[in-house]
């Protein structure tokens, strides 16, 4: 299924190596705290961003840096940003104000349309949660309606449709219908609205509306606009309505030799090209940020999972980042954010909070958001967070793994993925199976130390870092070099002997210099 530009926030402070232990005067300070590392992760070679902390994502500052270093592009001129904003001005997908919804779930009993492994009641519960995510919307009636013909134009058989129509029209409470199908064809939507006398919506429209409301960065908003284009094309094809909602206006066709429909189709094609160009500019900046991160060698851990499984809560528990505010709703995280934390070895890592997955999403929506998880492929480690208290947890896991396979991630990255069984406080006696699984309660802080230890082992393996214990002289360059180039885990100074025992982590790039300075 589906990283957008990282919105970086400060993380927790890196504690001192050994409290009360005085390092030699010649030794420089310990490695930077995680929030400073995160600032470096964000800044780039020439210092802090020019846009200020309120604007998430990488900066685009021009000019040349040090020799051999690539620089981000110039800031887009204001007219470019205005053009992008024009692309994002769209009519609302759903009616404003309070809506009392009838949730209609077509239950396929058999055949190719029958969902695998998921019961109707769980699918209805997820659909209800989607509706309740919308401000002012509530479900006042739920109907699970059997059907043998989900691919037919009107989905239900004649008698079933007549009975359904009678119930919907006979209720004075209902103001809209949510048909829990992936996507309705426009003719189906028009006929059902005519039969039921009110607006009818599918999962695609509702999820897209939620995305609109939760998208914060320009990249996320542009990706939502790109995902809407198939809906606009379908609408145009079936009723020829102008894209701006106004009358047809002959100025579009006088002297051009184009029909009204051709003009509208061309405008949509132009809009798509402009959105894709804008997204490509942002993608290049994100790739540059990734190169800068790899130069600094901050390990990146991408946290992913089914929507509302507790990813953001887990990141807050791992980093202590007070700026992280989890929300109990679907797709609360749409813009990927970066948060710095430290592992038991005091190694600073970057946790990437990614977008949530959902089953039964249309291909066009998935395709538009494929770039959202592009950075996942460049991570050092993946965490798959599962809500093990959910009755459909196994089907949710299958949906996430299917989406990850669709991203064509490296096999080694998928094989090393750590599976976090979250919300175990709601499942007494739960015991995870498999060598890469850990049971936690992110909300209560249960199992976090075991998880951090497992993450540390996985990160060291994935990045090729070496954990070493050394005895070094207090005088000389060795101890200073370790403080500057390595991650110091522990320091035991023995001043009477003029030596110190040091536990360190050495990166791959520094190991060659290390061997020269510390010959065997």
TrEMBL record:
Pfam families: GTP-bdg_M (PF16360), GTP-bdg_N (PF13167), MMR_HSR1 (PF01926). Residues 70-84 have a biased composition (Acidic residues). This is Putative GTP-binding protein 6. Residues 22-91 are annotated as: Disordered. PROSITE patterns: G_HFLX (PS51705). InterPro entries: G_HFLX_dom, GTP-bd, GTP-bd_M, GTPase_HflX, GTPase_HflX_N, GTPase_HflX_N_sf, P-loop_NTPase. The keyword Magnesium applies. One of its GO terms (molecular function) is GTP binding. NCBIfam families: GTP_HflX (TIGR03156). Residues 299-463 form the Hflx-type G domain. Keywords: Coiled coil, GTP-binding, Magnesium, Metal-binding, Nucleotide-binding. Gene3D superfamilies: GTPase HflX, N-terminal domain, P-loop containing nucleotide triphosphate hydrolases. It comes from Camelus ferus. PANTHER family: GTP-BINDING PROTEIN 6-RELATED, GTP-BINDING PROTEIN HFLX. GO terms for cellular component: cytoplasm. Residues 261-288 form a coiled coil.
